[in-house]
């Protein structure tokens, strides 16, 4: 227990962490102020060493396996918030510095997403049971940050706000061809087709999403104007007047950013408009949690804008609008978590308790990064030509909410 005690002693400068070791002995680590208080119990002595050497990975694994639990009214969300509040102290520990340096070295390898591997990475997460997503997403199954115009907005309303905002930024005109890169279950593509007389092509690498999106288009009578393709966007060879991509850029990988914007530019007509909605970070470039990378989103990464802009500039694209969504995703994730918990018994029947704990840790750890950490979402509007859009933002006003 000694190495772990040393880590916790240095790490906890704010709040109190109470830890019962595998023998039942209580250890307290007290900061200033001594609130909030979080009580943790370790059920396996092997955790002493693994938490010290590889805490970010071990924490998620131990919670998922039930080898690390919380007591006295504490829960994993409380611990994650305490961890973020002490982030500076944690990061200064020599062992954590070594781990972070190693993660930075491995970053390019973890984000290699050639066509074949990209399909496998997508299947890992998005080809899970369709019923799972029905149980915690909104009715339109939008699996990305919603847009809360007021605190009273329901998840359904906030997701409609998001779709309307994106559609407004596309500045649609009748007769245009629209591409949706990473179309998910088809909700945004279908919404776009309902807002204007346009043709839409949605592409996804998920077989499950492709099947559901195609069925939805047919059921809504939009199959003549909305087509979904099971393919990599890099294999497309036609041009579009408008391009939208929501929640897909996070899976591109830093080493593929230049390829992404080169392809986006080639797919866009000369007077076209593209909007990219993606998770990012307000901090300098970093790495994805190794636990999230291994168990939830292999190949993914949330970039700093400083990692994105050089590639946009390299391909001489105009950034005609950039909006940063801050707490919107935290609110979205908490509502997903609430609905997940409401339907936990059914989800456990589909999978098992271990899966439920894994997804609890996933949803709450990401929510924490957006509530009290550096997580954010950005919407970047791009054009080839300086005059492709009105020169003021009035066309965006009063369209959402």
Sum up the structure in keywords.
401 residues; elongated; seven-stranded mixed sheet; four-stranded mixed sheet; Rossmann fold; Nonspecific Lipid-transfer Protein, Chain A; alpha/beta
Oligomeric state of the chains?
A: single chain
Widest beta sheet: strand line-up: 7-6-5-8-9-11-10
CATH topology of the largest domain: Rossmann fold
Describe the largest sheet: 7 strands, mixed
Rounded average pLDDT? 92
What's the number of helices? 17
Tell me the number of strands. 11
Which runs of at least 5 residues are low in confidence (pLDDT < 50)?
Answer: none
What is the domain total for the residues? 2
Radius of gyration: 22 Å
Straight-line distance between termini: 53 Å
CATH architecture designation of the largest domain = 3-Layer(aba) Sandwich
State the shape: elongated
**SSE class:** alpha/beta
């Amino acid at each position: 227990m000694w190495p772990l005690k040393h880590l916790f002693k240095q790490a906890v400068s704010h709040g109190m962490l109470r830890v019962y070791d595998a023998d039942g002995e209580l250890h307290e680590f007290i900061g200033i102020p001594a609130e909030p208080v979080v009580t943790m119990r370790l059920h396996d002595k092997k955790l002493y060493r693994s938490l010290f050497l590889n805490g970010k990975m071990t924490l998620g694994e131990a919670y998922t396996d039930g080898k690390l639990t919380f007591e006295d009214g504490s829960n994993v969300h409380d611990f994650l918030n305490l961890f973020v509040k002490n982030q500076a102290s944690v990061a200064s520990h020599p062992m954590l510095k070594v781990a972070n340096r190693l993660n930075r070295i491995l970053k390019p390898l973890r984000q290699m997403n050639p066509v074949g591997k990209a399909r496998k990475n997508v299947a890992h997460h998005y080809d899970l049971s369709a019923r799972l997503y029905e149980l915690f997403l909104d009715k339109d199954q939008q699996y990305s940050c919603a847009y809360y115009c007021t605190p009273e907005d329901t998840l359904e309303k906030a997701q409609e706000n998001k779709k309307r905002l994106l559609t407004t930024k596309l500045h649609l005109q009748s007769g245009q061809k629209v591409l949706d890169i990473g179309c998910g279950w088809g909700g945004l593509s279908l919404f776009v087709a309902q807002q204007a007389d346009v043709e839409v092509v949605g592409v996804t690498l998920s077989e499950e999403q492709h099947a559901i999106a195609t069925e939805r288009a047919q059921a809504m009578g939009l199959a003549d104007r909305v087509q979904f393709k099971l393919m990599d966007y890099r294999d497309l060879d036609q041009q579009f007047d408008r391009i939208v991509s929501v929640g897909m850029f996070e899976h591109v990988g830093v080493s593929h950013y230049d390829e992404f914007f080169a392809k986006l530019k080639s797919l866009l007509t000369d007077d076209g408009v593209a909007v990219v909605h993606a998770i990012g970070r307000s901090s300098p470039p970093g790495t994805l949690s190794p636990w999230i990378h291994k168990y939830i989103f292999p190949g993914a990464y949330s970039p700093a804008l400083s990692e994105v802009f050089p590639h946009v500039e390299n391909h001489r694209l105009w950034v005609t609008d950039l909006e940063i969504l801050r707490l919107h995703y935290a609110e979205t994730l908490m509502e997903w978590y609430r609905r997940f918990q409401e339907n936990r018994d059914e989800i456990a029947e589909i999978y098992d308790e271990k899966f439920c704990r894994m997804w609890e840790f996933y949803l709450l750890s990401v929510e924490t990064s957006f509530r009290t950490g550096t997580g954010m979402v950005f919407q970047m509007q791009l054009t080839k030509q300086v005059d492709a859009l009105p020169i003021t933002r009035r066309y965006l006003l009063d369209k959402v909410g």
